[in-house]
Structures are given as C-alpha cells and as structure tokens.
Amino acid sequence: MLRLLNTAVFLILIYIGVSAKPIKITVNYSQFKFDSSTTLVELYYSFPDTALVYKHIGKKLSCELQCSLNIYNNLGVVDKRTWIVEKVFENDSDALHQRSDLIGIQKIYLMPGQYKFSMNFIDLTDNTKKDSLKFDLNVKDFISSKMQLSDIQLSQHISQYDSTTNMYSQKYIKSELVVLPLPTDAYVGTSPVLYAFTEIYNLKSTFKLDSFQIKYIILDNTKKEVFDVVYQRPIVSNDQIDVLQLPVDVLNSGVYFLKQILPITRNGIIDSLVNLKKFYLLNPDLPAEQSTLLSEDEMFLRSEFSTISEKRIDDMFAMTKFVASVNEVDTYTQLTSLSAKQKFLYRFWSQRDPNPATQVNERYEEFKKAVDYAKRNYKSSLNPQGWNSDRGKILLKYGFPTQIDRKYFSSRMDSVQTYPYEIWYYDNIQGGAIFAFVDMRGLENFAQVHSTALGEVNQPNWFNLYAVKHNSDTEINKTKGGNFNLGR
Q1: What is the pLDDT of residue 92?
Q2: Which of 95, 184, 209, 275 satisfies CB 3.0 to 4.6 Å to 61 for a cystine?
Q3: 403/467 Cα distance (integer angstroms)
Q4: What distance in Å separates the CA atoms of residue 358 and residue 277, rounded to the nearest whole number?
Q5: For residue 174, what pLDDT is reported?
Q6: How far apart are CA 185 and CA 99, in angstroms?
Q7: Are strands 403-407 and 421-426 parallel, antiparallel or unpaired?
Q8: 269-282 and 186-188 beta bridge pairing
Q9: How far is CA 137 from the centre of its chain?
Q10: Residue closest to 286 by CA, chosen among 375, 206, 190, 216
C-alpha cells in the first residue's frame, strides 16, 4: 500500500512537472506620498499557482519561488532585497485542480528621481524555471504644499479591516482598509466589480469648502466615453483617500481606461487633476466587440490641429519653436500650405506625447497651460502678449518651475536696494537648474540675466551686476529703452 501511495505521488509530481508552464510573472506598481521628501513605491507581483514545480513534504505539496530585486540610480545600487514566496497544498488533488494567482507586494521608499529596476525569479524546486524583467521608473515628487493625486491602484477587492481576524497580512492594510492588489489589472468573471484606491494630498489647503467633487469616466479602447459617475465627497482631512467600487458587468470583454478627474482652481485659472489607468475585462457572458483601428490621417482629422486657421497656425508655431529643434524650425519655415503646417504641428506634438496609450497628450496640455499662464501674468507694455517675454519663453521651454523666489520691493531697512527680481528653481532639469530675472526699468518686463542650465545665458555675478541699484545712472543699459538682451 505504501509503495502504491509513493507511486501515485511520483506520478503526480511528474504530471505537475511536465504540464507546468514557464514562469510568467506579472509586475505592476503604484506611487504614493510617504513624507515631504520620500515617495512610497508599492511593487505588486502575481503568477499562477500552477507555474511552479511542487515537491512532496509529508502529505502536503509545496513550491517555493525565490524573488530578487535590485534598484539603481546614477550613483549605483540604492536597494537590494531577496524574498521567498511559498505555496502549500494540503493534499494532492488540490495541486491538480486548484487554479488561482499568487499575489505579493513589496514596499519601497525612494527619493524622487530616475531609477532602474531589475527583478529575477527562480523556482527553487526546478532551478531551470526562471523569469526576469527590467524597467525604468520615474519616482514622482509629491510636493508638500501642492494638491496632488497618487497613482490609481486597481484592486481585486477593498473592504473594511477587521482586526479580530487574521485573514490578511498587514502589508495589505491601508487607512483601515484591506486593499488587495490586482497586478494584472484584469477583472475576470460574469459579475465583475472594479475597485480603485487613490490618495489625495493637500485637500484642505486647496479647497475652502467642506466637500469636493470627483468624477470617474470609463473609456473604451478607442478612448470614447462609455459612461461616467460623479461623487460629492466630504473633506475630512488634508490628506485623504478615495475608494471606487463600480460594477462593470454591463461592459463587453475588452480593453478599457478608468479616468479620474478632480476639478480645482489654481491662480484664478480653472484646472483639474487627472489620472488615467488601463484595465482589462474578461466576461464570458459578454464577448469582445470588434474594434476599428484609426489611421494617422483619421487621428489627425479628429485632433484640434486640423481646424487651426491660416491666421493662427504661424502664431502657434511661434510659441512652439521654443521647444523645437533647429531642424524642426527649418522644416516648418519651408512649408507653404495650411494643411502641411497643420500636419506638422500634429506630428510634432504626437512625437512628444509621453504616454501615447492615454487619451491626453500630457506634454501638449502642460504647454498650453504654460502659454495661457504667460499671457495672463507676464504681459507688459514691452511684451503685451506675455508668452514672448523672457519669463514666458522659459516657461514654454521648460514648463512650470518647482519653486519661485520673488522680491519686488526693497524697504529702507534693507542694506542693499534692489530692482524687482525673481529666481526660478527647476529640480528636473540637468540635476537642478536656476533662472534669474530682473525688472531693471520698473515696467514689469523681467529680463533673464542668469541661468545654470546648459545653453542659457550664464552670469554668476548677476545679482551685483543687474539686481543691485547703483548710484550711477549709466549702468549697463539699465536706463535704455527696449528689452534687456544678453545675446540669447
């Protein structure tokens, strides 16, 4: 009898070993604010419980997966860790019939910046079964004074945490909720429910009311809106969470996007915070519909560029040229027809889309916000359009600065009398760069006099040269008309 049992176990092991597929690990991540200088990266992973080779331990079957993670920045290794994932079946029949995904999470605390992730996986029962992957990650900077959204974490289930039970590991507990990761971003079944977890930062310092509105939109794979839901949420703290539980059993199987919109007002300008997350739906009762792929010409005709008038097209490129290369400027100047210019601008911004999978071209939207802001805030008698002022040009070229230090007035108590000046700080340019602007004629026309960025005018002694008021009225063009120019 014992021999027959051993033979049966041996056959089971052979069956599992032969039928087991190569390890295919799914890895995903979300980013959250940890503190004023550190970002929490939650790394999620999953794999089928049948992907590994099982070994017999007593009456049970067990498998082990060794996982290793190395994280690098430009200085070298910043994090290195190894851990074991184990699965145990109580009996042989479970090992043959049970089918589920094993999930896990690693919490990583990093400073904002660029990192490279390298992961390796190996089956400890059969070390010929391996998997590995590498990817780059730009760790976000959650600025303490600015209202921001974390990433959207899609979840297989979100429920209230019950401390009287030990059903879930503490690593899945967030804000008194059990948030189970969904690394595949795929909802499977005939009654699927989408769960999404997001954190919102600096609510009370942004909204002066006791509630705020948040909108969720479901988009199909062609970015067409399927339906939306709007919620009015109470403001209970400066940093708080938002949880979405949305039945999606009316949707056909396919690829979708969850869009999250939080309307806000910044500097008198109506704006919004936007998140977009792709997810997959597999509902056996509702098969996928046939979708139509759009050609580049069709995408162009749907864009705003196809309707730009002859009068506006050159003005638009005059703004765009601050982010264009020399060759791109030369190419545009040789174009004569309106259609050619429209398509040039469409391709120009399409090539700069940081995430073509999303509905929004984030780089172009940021550029339009910069143009609008410059028109409103940087216009003067010498530069009535605003965007072509020195500050406007830098704003269009590099985007909004991380921080601005302003000094517009000198008091009699100041040891040094100065002209109005601004210092802009960019943390994301060449490891950190500054720009200095001085209004030397009191006309709100701030001239760029210094920068540490490559290719920009560099005058380390700019403060004494241009900001300090000297007794002489003959200082370096300060009393002459027109724009101050350092040959930029």
Answers
A1: 65
A2: 95
A3: 19
A4: 8
A5: 93
A6: 18
A7: antiparallel
A8: parallel
A9: 10
A10: 190
